[in-house]
Amino acid sequence: NYYGGNWASFSFSGLLSWIKENQEKTDINDECEDWRKLILENEEVISLSKKVKTIQHVEDFCFVDQDSTEDVEEAGALPKLPVFEASGAEGVAQESEKECPPVECALQEAESSELEKAAGTEPASATEGKDTEVTSENESSQRTALGKSTLELGKTEAAPSETSAQEPKKITYSQIVREGRRFNIDLVSKLLYSRGLLIDLLIKSNVSRYAEFKNATRILAFRGGKVEQVPCSRADVFNSRQLTMVEKRMLMKFLTFCLDYEQHPDEYQDYENSSFAQFLSTQKLTPSLQHFILHSIAMVSETDCSTLEGLQATKKFLQCLGRYGNTPFLFPLYGQGEIPQCFCRLCAVFGGIYCLRHSVQCLVVDKESGRCKAIVDHFGQRISANYFIVEDSYLSESVCTNVSYRQISRAVLITDQSVLNTDSEQQVSILTVPPVDLGKPAVCVIELCSSTMTCMKDTYLVHLTCPSTKTAREDLEPVVQKLFNLNTEKGKKTENEELEKPRVLWAVYFNMRDSSGIDKNSYGGLPSNVYVCSGPDSALGNDCAVKQAEAIFEEMFPAEEFCPPPPNPEDIIYDEDEIAPEETGLSNSPETKPEFSSEESSSRGSTAVQKEDKEK
Questions:
Q1: Quick one: what percent of the chain has pLDDT higher than 90?
Q2: Which residues share a beta bridge with 598?
Q3: Burial 464-491 (b: 16+ CB within 10 A, else e)
Q4: Three-state SS annotation for 494-531
Q5: CA distances from 402 to 13, 27, 399, 525 (A)
Q6: 3-state secondary structure (DSSP) of residue 444
Q7: Least confident of 62-71, 407-416, 460-469
Q8: Given CB 3.0 to 4.6 Å as the disulfide criterion, which of 57, 160, 245, 409 pairs with 423?
Q9: What pTM was estimated for this model as a whole?
Q10: Contact 363, 394 (CB under 8 A)
Q11: Helices then strands (H, E): number in the chain?
Q12: Are 512 and 54 in contact (CB under 8 A)?
C-alpha cells in the first residue's frame, strides 16, 4: 500500500493503521480463482507468501490523556503516498502535485546558492537548524575556496530557546493526532555516513537533488547514569570542559594513530586476536576515554568486536568528520523513507512504472530451462518477465525452509524534551547506551527534533534499535526507563536537583526481521533469474543495502554501469517507435531505453524531464 516496505516512514495516523494491521495479522485473500488456466503443461508455479511475517510483538502505549480524541482528525489528512499509475516524468509531476507530501529540493546549483548568500537571502527550506546540500568533492573544494562553509546550502542556527530552562509545554494526545501530518516516523532508524556508500551513490546518480539533509549535530554518551556530549573534532576536544588537558592530549594522540593505523602494525598486531576493548585498555587512555571511543566513536560491541574491526570503525568515523559538519552523519529531512522514494522518482522520469496495491500470486517457471518466464497477479493477469527481483518477506515458507533469520528490536517514542537540554532545541543526536550485562547488545538511540520534519513542534522523535535477544519491549524498555520518565504525571527533580527526565508521550515497540547476509543458495528451488534482496539490517549505516543492490544489478547486467549519472534533459532523444508502447501503460515488451545526443532532442522526451526539473 506504500513505498519502501520496511524502509517506509508514516504520518502518525498512518503508523497507527500499520500497527493495527500488524497486530491483527489478517491473511491477504484477494486471489483470482481462474489464474491456473493461464499455466501451460510445460510450466510450474512457485506461490508467494500471502502473510506479512517480518513484524512481530507490536505493542503501543499512550502516556497522555486520550479522553477527547474521538472526534479529532489529522489536519489536512490526505493519503501520504499516492499510487503512481502514470509512467514517466509527466505522471510523477502530476501525482506529486496533487497528493505527495512536500519534499523540498534543496540541492540547487552552486552558483544560485552563492547568489542567494551574496544577496543576503536564505532558501525557503532553511527555516530551522542547518540543512545540508550533498554534492561532489570537486564542488566542495570550489565552494571552500569561495569562503563558504563546506557543502552547506545556508545556515540559520535556531535561536536559543526562551523556554529551554522552563518546563516543557504540555502536549495532549489530541494535539498529536491533530498534528499527525507533521510526523514522519521511520520503521527503520539509520543515519548516512558523510563518506558512506549511499552518499556517494546519491551524488553520482544525481538522486540527491530530490532530497534534503540535516547534519547530526552531536554525539552523546551514557555513563554513570548521565548523558554527556562526546567531543569528536579537534576543536571539540580542545574546547571540552569534560576532559582534562592530559586527557585531551591522550585522545588526540590515539585518534591520530587510528587515522593511519595500517602504517603502524607493530602497535596492534599483538592484539589482533583480542577484543577492541582489551586493546584500548593497554593504551594510555583513562576509563572515560575508553568508554567514549568504544561506544560513541567506534560504536562497537565490548565483547564481539576484534581489534582490527574497532580500528576500522574508528577510522571510518574520523574520515567522515568535517565533510558536511562537526559529526560524521547526515539525516534526510522527512525521514529515511524519503530515500527509496527519491530513487523511485528518478526511475519514473526515465519510464519506470510503479503499481501499489497490486500483489503477485505466483511465479511461472519453465520446466525445461528452469527460468522464471512470467508472474500472475491477483487479478489473474499474466505478465511476462525476463527478471524477477523480490524482497525476502514475499517468499513462502516452502522456499525458506533452510533460512535462519535474525531479529531487530525497535522502539519509537514521542517525547516532550531532549535527553540533553542545551540552549538550542534543534538538535539531532545519536547516543549509544552500553549493555548492563556483558554479551548483550548495546542500544543505539537517535533523537530527532522538529526541524528534521519528522515530528511536531515542542516534541522529539526518539528511535531505539538493537539486535534482538527477546521481544522488543523486553530488550528496550530498561533503556527507556533509564533515559525517560514513563509516568503519566510530570516527574519531580531529584534530591540532587538534577533536571527531570524527558517525559514519554507515546511509544511503540516491535521486532523486525533481519534477513541481511543470507546466501541465495539458502532459498530452495528458486530459478536463476529470480533475485532476492533483504529487508533492513541492524547497522547504523546503509552500506549493506547499497552493496546488495549493486551486486544484483551487476549479476543481471554485467556490461552496464550501476546508477550512472543521468543525462541532461536537453540531451535526451526518444525514438518514435519506442514511445508508442508507453502510451498504452503496462507492456510485456522489453523496457524502453532512451538514446542520448547533444545535437537534437525530441520535444516529448525533453519536455517531460524539464517539467519534472522545473517543478522540483
A1: 47
A2: none
A3: bbbbbeebbbebbbebbeebbbeeeeee
A4: CCCCCCCCCEEEEEEEEEEEECCCCCHHHCCCCCCCEE
A5: 38, 24, 8, 11
A6: strand
A7: 62-71
A8: 160
A9: 0.79
A10: no
A11: 16, 23
A12: yes
Say how far apart CA 237 and CA 226 lie, in whole Å: 19
Domain boundaries, the chain: 1-25+52-67+170-228+330-362+392-488+499-556, 233-320
Kindly report the number of other CB atoms within 10 A of residue 123's CB atom.
20
Report the alpha-carbon distance of residue 460 to residue 456 in Å, rounded: 8
Grid look-up 576536544 returns 237
C-alpha cell at 575: 525514438
- What does the angle CA 339 – CA 344 – CA 345 come to, to the nearest 5 degrees? 100
pLDDT of amino acid 75:
66
Report the first-to-last Cα separation within the chain, whole angstroms: 25
- What's the CATH fold of domain 233-320? Guanine Nucleotide Dissociation Inhibitor; domain 1 (1.10.405)
Closest CA to 388 of 561, 517, 527, 562: 527
Pick from 173, 425, 130, 435: which is nearest to 303 by CA?
A: 435
CA angle 252, 217, 323 (to 5 degrees): 65
Angle (CA) 327 329 333, round 5°: 125
Give dist(CA 209, CA 103) in Å, integer. 11
Query: Which DSSP symbol is given to 152?
Result: E
In the chain, the amino acid numbered 32 is: C
162-181 residue pLDDT tens: 444 456 678 899 999 999 99
Q: Taking the CA atoms of 214, 215, 221 and 227 in sequence, report the sign of the dihedral they define.
A: negative
Q: 3-state DSSP call for residue 162?
A: coil
Q: Which residues contact 472 (CB under 8 A, 6 or more apart)?
A: 57, 59, 409, 410, 411, 509, 510, 511
| The three-state (H, E, C) secondary structure of 267-323, written as one string | HCHHHCCCEHHHHHHHCCCCHHHHHHHHHHHCCCCCCCCEHHHHHHHHHHHHHHCCC
C-alpha cell at 469: 535477544
The top-scoring range by mean pLDDT among 100-114, 281-295, 420-434, 458-472 is 458-472
- The set of cell numbers assigned to 205 is 546518480
Cβ(401)–Cβ(521) under 8 Å? Answer: no
Please give the full DSSP string across 351-400, using - where no structure is assigned: T----SS--EEEEEEETTT--EEEEEETTS-EEE-S-EEEEGGGB-TTTS
Residues 604, 577: Cα–Cα separation, whole Å: 13
User: For residue 127, what is its C-alpha cell?
Assistant: 527555516
Instruction: Find all residues with CB under 8 Å of 369, minimum gap 6, and list them.
Output: none
- Dump the DSSP string for 227-281: EEEPP-SHHHHHH-SSS-HHHHHHHHHHHHHHHTGGG-GGGTGGGTTSBHHHHHH
pLDDT in tens, 16-27: 999 999 888 665
Identify the three-state secondary structure at position 572: strand
Which amino acid is residue 591, in one-letter code? E
Which three-class secondary structure string do you get for 3-37?
CCHHHCEECHHHHHHHHHHHHHCCCCCCCCHHHHH
Q: Regarding beta strands 218-223 and 429-433, do their DSSP bridges make them parallel or antiparallel, or are they unpaired? A: parallel
Which amino acid belongs to residue 526? Answer: L
